[in-house]
Amino acid sequence: MPTFPAYDGTGLAYHVFGEGAPVICLPGGPMQDSSYLGELGGLSGHRRLIMVDPRGTGRSATPEDAASYRCDRLVDDVEALREHLGLDRLDLLAHSAGTNLAVLYAARHPERVRRLALITPSTRAVGIDATGRSRLAVARLREDEPWFAAAFAALEAVMAGDAPGDPKAVDPFFYGRWDAEARTHQASQDGQRNDEAAVAFGAEGAFDPEATRAALAAFTAPVLLLAGEVDLNTPPDVAAEFAGLFPDATFVVQPEAGHFPWLDDADLFVATTRTFLG
User: Who's near 219: CB < 8 A, 6+ residues apart?
Assistant: First the structure.
């Protein structure tokens, strides 16, 4: 397992899958190790995937300063990896909360990004919020599912600020198919997130949406925004608004996909991302 030193000496780990030109892959969580990404549905058959374990997760070391988990400070970890790999420019792919880090990196180092792929992205860094109406509309697309009634009741409780009887009851909404593979994938993520780091990730000062939007308006590299049609976390209308912040964005909605589109239709996900990345 390869490692590299971060700017503050923390040893950071990454995992390599496949061959060819590298793609740096940033996981979500926030602050979850990269294992849940797998090989992104087989994208490793076309590109060399560099799967990063953020500091304090997976095989990466825990930093001495917990404040270094803050998203804007993690930008220096990505830059340290670029230097370690000897890349002049990089292709950057990020999922969910990891997209906040990816766009902050792109805003600070635009000359270092060749292509940027944002998969079912979080939009916190740019100040876009999903409305309750939008989330409920996406949820209602699943009303024919056998698990819908219990899951929707739990979702309504969450959105009302109440604790649902079973906090995992909403999990089916994050997958295009709530089958054995999805259940196994969801269960495998238990305990993989560093909760202390997740709190620090979005601490005060981590995000400046106005400044980030201004920087992205001048970011000229190609960007892919891939949304899942039934993704409760990032409804397609939210991802579309995000795409509108970039001068050169391709917006794609993967049909019948949830928050993990490489599981819902691996062939389509790989075809989309492979075509974009080149």
Answer: 106, 107, 110, 113, 116, 246, 247
Q: What is the 3-state secondary structure (H, E, C) of 206-264?
A: CCCHHHHHHHHHCCCCCEEEEEECCCCCCCHHHHHHHHCCCCCEEEEEECCCCCCHHHH
CATH classification of the domain holding 77: 3.40.50.1820
Domain-embedded: residue 167: no
Count of domains in the chain?
1
Given strand 249-254, what is the order of strands in its sheet? 3-5, 11-17, 48-53, 22-26, 90-95, 113-119, 223-228, 249-254
Q: How many residues does the chain have?
A: 278
Q: What is the pLDDT of residue 237?
A: 96
* Predicted TM-score (pTM) above 0.90: yes
Q: In the chain, which ranges are continuous DSSP H helix? A: 71-85, 98-108, 132-140, 148-159, 180-188, 195-201, 209-217, 236-243, 261-264, 266-277
The string of pLDDT tens digits covering residues 181-202 is 999 999 999 888 999 999 999 9
Q: Evaluate if residue 232 carries a pLDDT over 80.
A: yes
Cα(18)–Cα(190) distance, integer angstroms: 26
Domain region containing 265: 3-127+193-277
Q: CB-hemisphere CA count at 13 Å for 230?
A: 20
| Encoded tokens for 212 | 């980030």
Does residue 45 lie within any of the structural domains?
yes
